Amino acid sequence: MVYGTRTDRELVDAVQRGNTAAFEGLVERHQKRVFNLLFRWLGSYEEAADATQEVFVSAFRAIKKFRGDAAFATWLYQIGINHARNRRKRMAFAAQRTVPLDPPNPDGQNPGPAAFVPHPGPNPAEVAEQREIQELVQRELRGLAPNEALLILLRDFQDLDYEEIARILEVPRGTVKSRLHRARQALKVRLAPYYDPQKAKP
Question: Residue 22 gets which letter from DSSP?
């Protein structure tokens, strides 16, 4: 059955009435955006893939509790962020217990956000430059406090509005705006050494 023309609310209602196959439509519609957020926040393709699977399993198990007070996507992001927070804690703990024998190999890193961005054009030089910039931003995002990076990802990468971010994080809209401003300033400071101040955008 084709679910592309049905709204999230209609698909959720169908699942709640026992049509579990309708959940496939929700997965197809949202899995890429959920994965991209988790990948950019966790910095690991494998961790993000596992977490994305856990998110939809959790959503399916809890879908009868969904009442539509917020959009389904908002609810899904909340589940995803909770899973990612737990994974970040486990990853940080594992990193503290692991001493690398060799220095990290830049060529062996997981693909950055550029792997999920449409091809910018036929010019190989432009492609390489775009990839380098996005990998740089991704790397410096990981140097921010987790909640700062999350705000930037939700607003500037996922293109969510302030109201939706406020619902996801369960904080006032004004708090989102003020914290996002501080997060952007922190990222700007981290990126400053890579750019000529005379050419940098304000």
Answer: G
pLDDT in tens, 29-80: 999 999 999 999 998 899 999 999 999 999 999 999 999 889 999 999 999 9
CA 78 to mean position of chain CA atoms: 11
* Contact indicator for 48, 39 with CB cutoff of 8 Å: yes
Q: Where do runs of H (alpha helix) occur along 65-195?
A: 72-97, 124-141, 146-152, 162-169, 173-191
Of 182, 184, 94, the closest CA to residue 140 belongs to 184
pTM: 0.74
Between CA 60 and CA 58 the distance in angstroms is: 5
- Encoded amino acid at 99, one letter: V
Q: Which fold has domain 1-99?
A: Rna Polymerase Sigma Factor; Chain: A (1.10.1740)
Burial class (CB in 10 A: 0-12, 13-18, 19+), 25: buried
Q: Answer whether 167's CB lies under 8 Å from 74's CB.
A: yes
Domain boundaries, the chain: 1-99
Torsion angle of alpha carbons 107, 110, 116, 119, nearest 10°? 10
- Cα 92 to Cα 47: distance, rounded to the nearest angstrom: 13
